[in-house]
Amino acid sequence: MLNILLLIPLVGIIILWLIPQASSLYVSRILSIITISLALGVSLVLLIQFNPMDDSLQFLENIPWLAPLGLTYRLGADGLSLPLIVLNNLLTGLALFRSDEAHHRPRLYFTLILFLNVGVTGAFSAQNLLLFFLFYELELIPLYLLIAIWGGAQRGYAATKFLIYTAVSGILLLAAFLGVAWFSQSTTFDYQSLQHHHLPINVQYLLLIALLIGFGIKMPLVPFHTWLPDAHVEASTPISVLLAGVLLKLGTYGLLRFGLGLFPEPWLALSPFLAGWAVVSVLYGAFTAIAQTDMKKMVAFSSIGHMGYILLAAAAATPLSLLGAVFQMVSHGLISAMLFFLVGVIYQKTGTRDIHSLRGLLNPERGLPIIGSLMILGVMASAGIPGMVGFISEFLIFRGSFPVFPVQTLLAMIGTGLTAVYFLLLVNQTFFGRLTSNLSNVPQARWSERTPGIILAILIVTFGLQPAWLTGWIESSTTALSHVFPISTTTLHS
Amino acid sequence: MSTLSHSTHRLSHLLHRLESGGALLPDSPENVTEVVGILKSYGVVLGEYWQNLIYISEHQFLVLFPFFKYFNGNVSPGKLIRHWFHDRINFEFSEYCMKAMFWHGGGGLDAYLDTIEFETLARRAIQAKIKHNPLIQGINAIFSDFLLEQVRQMAYYSALGQFWRVMSPMFLNLSDRYDQGEIKTIPDVVQHILDGLVAAATLPITYGVHIGGQPYDIIPSSTGLTFLADTAVPYVEAVFLRSFPFMGTTSYNAQARQIPIEQERFNYGALYADPLPIGGSGIPPTLLMQDMRHYLPDYMDTIYGDNPRGNTDLRVRLCVSFQKSMFCVTTAAIKGLMPYPPDTCEPSQQKANRRYLEGWLDRLQESRLMDIQD
Questions:
Q1: pLDDT at A437
Q2: How many structural domains does chain B have?
Q3: CA–CA separation, A73 and A289 (whole Å)
Q4: Residue A425 in contact with residue A290, Cβ under 8 Å?
Q5: Touching check for A363 and chain B: CB below 8 Å?
Q6: Residue B248: predicted pLDDT
Q7: Strand pairing category for A71-77 and B214-219
Q8: What's the pTM value of the predicted model, to 2 decimals?
């Protein structure tokens, strides 16, 4: 089934290039949407067939590939990866739906997005370290091109910066993966085999640090974050959505799967440092977001802060905090995607993202009242207001991390308060007050522009009110992951 | 022919326009179409408003819980359902205007409602109304001014109803004359309104109710109240200029002294209202615009058709058009109340007229006057 999930977008790409009419924006967009809808449908079937009580890998695919290199085509999914696979297909579908402005070389544009989808799904499914690396690198090229070709005025700079940072990230990951196999004298790169390595502890430290920096760049964590705001500002709306909603999760997923999963002992020893790093990221992201006047940059720095929560939860590594970490990945995927969609509509209608140039957009007659209402819901969710998905994820993280790192957790909780500060500044400045005269002829938002935001808002509220519908898929796997520690984190703390 | 030198007033261009027979609203074919079209729909809506106001004043007199006051005595399950689904005229708007007049007062009606004569007549009607209702009798005994104040309010219901009973056909007639090609310019519009106001100026304002088959006068004809001085002028003052203290389109903070202490200094009226509502719905101008949009003549499509937002902001554009038309009514009122004829050749009279006009322009400086000059 996971094979089919990867094959569908590839078949879609082939069809895109076989049909002459697909050179038009309309046809290529429709074909791509149909393709991803099929992929989303298959991923939902996987979700239904998935046994949430079973903490082992499911839907395993094992095809020998380059045996001398230790590379096997081995795929599988568990509660850690399956929600992210579904999220990837959902957000790709919504991004394609909103890609109605890609008039320049549409066929190439949609091909790259489908490739991106394959890369991300593959990375989340790969159970071989080299295979993960290949998929991890595969998504890099299309994303670079999507920013470099269809981005804003400074797209060249932003795309190159993204490429350099992520390439360094890839090199570090490759070095760590090769190191694990090399030092453990393993003939395979299969994840499950390498989990039982007996490497000297100092080697494990070295390899874990390489992974931490590699995935820290991808997440991104301070101080490896500077590529992200530039990439977001220059990327078009659908690409920003994918970047924040899905691609950053490759970093957090990798950190949990490979950092924590392969090197539990050094992870445990480094966890106080990781928790401190998380706090720095959370507070730096939040304070920097407060200083922003560009809405997109504000949401981008907000993402940096929110990724810090995941690091805190991963450092604590209790069953509850790990559950919160994965929940936060999905939650942040939904919320940040929604915020970027809405910022995109505002930019499209008003021609600016500068919060000092916008005022009164909630005006029911001449503003963007539905977009504004969705934005208010989105920022409330991001700030962890109860009843929405952001509250559940943050509560799980804080509740799960507090017994292990009380001080760091309390400091991270300040970040939640600061989220409310910068998003209130944004909402108050942009949506409330009297619509300024230069905005009084803002075109009305179309339903096609509102739809992605509405779909995401429904999911944000649904999982906020009924989180068990999401935690049920995740819990067994995260609990199993927390058991990789030789001693419990609570014992360590005491 | 004016013998006065060029004015140094800040709005001297408007002053000279008024002195030379123009209006506060610039004359253009588009403005004429817009004003006549909006006044036609306003005339239809006013026709509904005045009938309901008169009905309430006569048939809902001292009804403690007037649940069906907007039905003009014709209640049926179908009408109730349409009412609840908001398929109806927003009669609340006319009540807001009535309350604005009642609150700001002014004119002979306000003065009469504080006289012994009114109190005597009102108490006679009250006694007749409550003689079979011991509960209300008890309330009246404890709070003797309560029902009296209700009767004063009823008097304003009636007075505003009578005022709009004249204005409604006047606006519809303006539209008919425009259709016949008789109205071509904004000064024509102003003159039509001025002629209508002058013709109705001395119409008596009276009010009485029937209780138990017996007539009870509340405002007898002997009080000498008339249309222009006792309803039209207080109406313009209250609704166009001062209006309601808190029911405008903008939120005001009384504690931050954003509300003047003296009522005379209020400027929240229709001429000052922001057409862009801020925040929620349900504000009075919105109610009127909701009503008027149903009765717009077809030619208004040409004015409102070219819009990137379609019809979603129609109420805002209706409000802008309505304000333009109200500046025409205000021009007619200003001209009608001029101390000397506008075309006087006497320099001292011209000087007095100019002082009078400058006073009005000073007052309207903070209004939407400058926004409608483009």
A1: 82
A2: 1
A3: 42
A4: yes
A5: yes
A6: 46
A7: unpaired
A8: 0.84
Tell me the C-alpha distance between A397 and A160, whole Å: 35
Q: Find residue B68's DSSP bridge partners.
A: none
d(CA A131, CA A219): 20
Helix (H) or strand (E) holding A475: helix A468-482
Tokens, residue B308: 């990137």
Q: Quick check: A93 and A451 in contact, CB under 8 A?
A: no
Mean pLDDT to the nearest integer, B246-256:
60
pLDDT average, residue stretch B18-37: 95
Cα separation, B258 vs B247, whole angstroms? 14
A493, pLDDT greater than 50: no
User: Each residue of B140-197: pLDDT tens digit?
Assistant: 999 999 999 999 999 999 999 999 999 999 999 999 999 999 999 999 999 999 999 9
- What confidence score (pLDDT) does residue B244 get? 63
Kindly indicate whether the ipTM for this predicted assembly is greater than 0.90, answering yes or no.
Answer: no
How far is Cα B164 from Cα B227, in angstroms, rounded to an integer?
10
Partner residues linked to B217 by β-bridges: B208
- Contact B316/A444, CB-based, under 8 Å? no
Q: How many CB atoms lie within 10 A of CB B301?
A: 12
B222, two tokens: 């002997």
Q: Which domain holds residue B198?
A: 12-372
Q: Is B339 exposed, middle or buried (0-12, 13-18, 19+ CB in 10 A)?
A: exposed
Grouping H, G, I as helix, E, B as strand and the rest as coil, residue A76 is strand
Q: Which residue has the tokens 């997005």?
A: A113
Instruction: Let me know if residue B237 belongs to a domain.
Output: yes
Residue B310, sorted as left (phi over 0), alpha (psi -120 to 50) or beta, turns out to be left
Per-residue pLDDT band for B252 (boundaries 50, 70, 90) equals: low
Q: For residue B279, what are its two tokens? A: 């925040």
Where do the domains of chain A lie? 273-494
Please say if the pLDDT value at position A51 is more than 50: yes
Take residue A156 and report the two structure tokens written for it. 């060249």
- The Cα-based distances of A115 to A4, A119, A242, A371 in angstroms read 14, 6, 12, 30
Proportion of chain A above pLDDT 70, given as a percent: 98
Q: How far is B1 from chain A (nearest CA, A)?
A: 40
Give the nearest chain B residue to A444 (CA atoms).
Answer: B309
Q: Are strands A58-66 and A71-77 parallel, antiparallel or unpaired?
A: antiparallel
Q: Say which residue the tokens 């490896």 belong to.
A: A224
- Measure CB to CB from residue A365 to each of B250, B308, B313 and give the nearest one: B313
Q: Cβ contacts (< 8 Å) between A434 and chain B: which residues?
A: 250, 274, 276, 278
Asked if B177 and B192 count as a contact pair (C-beta separation under 8 A), the reply is: yes
Classified as helix, coil or strand, B101 is helix
Determine whether the interchain pair A365/B278 forms a contact, defined as Cβ–Cβ distance below 8 Å. Answer: no
Identify whether B2 is part of a domain. Answer: no
For B241, residues 6+ apart whose C-beta sits below 8 A from its C-beta are B266, B267, B269, B271, B272, B363
DSSP A257: I
CA B276 → CA A437, B63, B352, distances in Å? Answer: 10, 37, 38
Q: What are the distances in angstroms from CA A441 to CA A361, A445, A448?
A: 11, 12, 20
Unique residue bearing structure tokens 């995109």:
A344
Q: What are phi and psi of B361, to 5 degrees?
A: -65, -35
Averaged over A359-378, what is the pLDDT?
Answer: 92
Give the nearest chain A residue to B282 (CA atoms).
A364
Q: How far apart are CA A189 and CA A181, in angstroms?
A: 6
Residues 6+ apart with CB under 8 A from A270: A205, A208, A212
Give the number of beta-carbon pairs within 8 Å between A and B.
34
Smallest CA-to-CA distance from A375 within A336, A321, A333 is with A336
Distance CA A350, CA A370 (A): 15
A119-144 burial by CB neighbour count: b if 16+ within 10 A, else e? Answer: bbbbbbbbbbbbbbbbbbbbbbebbb
